[in-house]
Request: fold
Amino acid sequence: MGSIINAQQIVNGLQLGSIYALIALGYTMVYGIVRLINFAHGDFYMLGAYAAYGAFFVFNSFMPISGPLAFIVLVIAMGGGGAIALLANRFAYKPLRYKPKLSSLVTAIGVSMFLEYFFSALPVIGPSPRGFPEIIPKQMYTFLGAEISNYVVIDIAVAAILMISLTFLIQRTALGRAMRAVSQDKDAAKLMGIDVERIISWTFLIGGAFAGAAGLLAGMTYPRIQPYMGILPGLKAFIAAVLGGIGNVPGAVLGAYIMGLAETFANAYNSLLGEGIAFVILILVLLVRPTGILGEKVADKI
Amino acid sequence: MGNLKLPRMLIATAAFWAVVSILNATGILNGYFMIIINRSLIFVILAVSLNLINGITGQFSLGHMGFAAVGAYVSGSITTLIFKLSPDTLAGNGIFVVAIVIGGLAAGFVGFLIGFPSLRLKGDYLAIMTLGFGEIIRTILNNIDAVGGPRGLLGIPKFSNFTVIVAFAFLTIAILRNLVQSSHGRAMLSIRENELAAELAGVDTTRYKVLGFIIGAFFAGVAGGLLAHLLQIAHPTQYGFYASALVLIMVYAGGMGSLTGSVIAAFTLTFLTEGLRVGIDWLKDTVGLPVGTEWTMVIYAILLILIMLFRTEGLMGMREAKILIIAEETK
Reply:
């Protein structure tokens, strides 16, 4: 076991878990508010990575590699992810809000396919993978027998800062209170004077921005980006959200870290198991506790 | 009595077979067109069988090509690896048909395995689950060396020809038509309309949901077997998520619950795919635009979104062509 579960693997698992957590939060927030599994969410993550890639080269042409440059790149990655989420909501999901749920799901698949193929069809981007630049010079440290790069620290820290800000936003601001109200009961929230559509837009914006940030972190950490890069992390983050209890914000984070660790350990054991562990987890959760670890049971309404 | 009245459908199919065969023999339809027609017919089988799961029973499968992969690999292994058959012999053709059916049964068994957990799942979760299963099947195939692993199963004898494929497509549509318009089909439709109400009215929803998956998967497996024996190769990448999505688009474009719609959409979209490929090649080679085949999928994605936004019920809605309505034939 020592070769599978050791300090190095735990660090790698936490790093992967941080990226999953940022994606899973968007899934779970959107699901909590509009009850839609946004299949295109993984592609918002992809878009964030490409936005960061482009922004780095534009700003690096007149700025040295530095903290402020990295910050600008992060802001643009988040802006890119958020903007595409807003557009998808406005043009694809909003018109279907009161139609049967499955039509929104199919539309989400359509949006996902569109983003992936449109980006690989665009000559400036293309289907082949690109190497991601070192936005911050990489340094290695040794800590408790584990090789830790400064990227690990950055990934975990950025995810933590964003998640703490989100908690503050949800618990302490008027917008957060409105979001909680809409997720509890859309109609009652409307009667209380909440502009439900505005809250939904904010939710997509925040979820998309978090996915964009995850795209940048993943681009830095596993330095390769391509138009289909969002499919698998998107699925795994979704499974993480289900594991934690979909619609539940702390649950998504918990599920994501469990997923990150489980995948890293499974990969160290056997790479085939590493590929399939997410789906094994999904099947187990759905069979044993379909509401997830922190989810609440919702009865069918007659 | 009267459950298997097929005269009009049989006549229509025989007429279609005769016209295409004559056109092919006279050289008006060349081999290239025959390939597209054969592909269209295989997609007809895939689309109507997915329609049984998604359209009629109201479940949601995103891994239909996973079932097709099972059928392709199982039947391909039987004809290629076990018997090393050649298409020239009568016995070979007999074993081929049996192999296709066994491939279908294997896919049906996998459908049972997937349908089983679906007892506890609703729409969205089921979508993810079936998507996951499709990917797992693909990953497993990629790692089995006996069937070629990532290189695919090569050297499959070319048993599938126009006549065989027409016969299987006819049988698929006929069986599904009879099923859908029987009391079992009504039970499946009632699950789609309102599962809770169906259950309260005494429909064994669990049984019919699983049954829908098994039957749909069986025919997908048959289609996969036919495809493998047409292309003479079974390759893991042929059965990925986007192939499944293409079948899904056919079902939604044609109309959820309308077999007629699925047939029309399968033909239209298969020909459209080929037309777009030719068009894109022309733009690239003659006009010199930097366009790739990815644009085909871009157009399909937009098509899917537009159908959902402006015509959610698809081309045919729930309607069927007259030859697919049993009550019309028993008049």
In short: The mean pLDDT of chain A is 89. The longest strand of chain A covers residues 140-143. The longest helix of chain A spans residues 7-34. Chain A touches chain B at residues 37, 92, 95-96, 99-107, 109-111, 113-114, 117-118, 120-121, 123, 127, 231, 235, 238-239, 242, 272, 275-276, 278-279, 282-283, 286-287, 290, 300, 302 (CB under 8 Å).
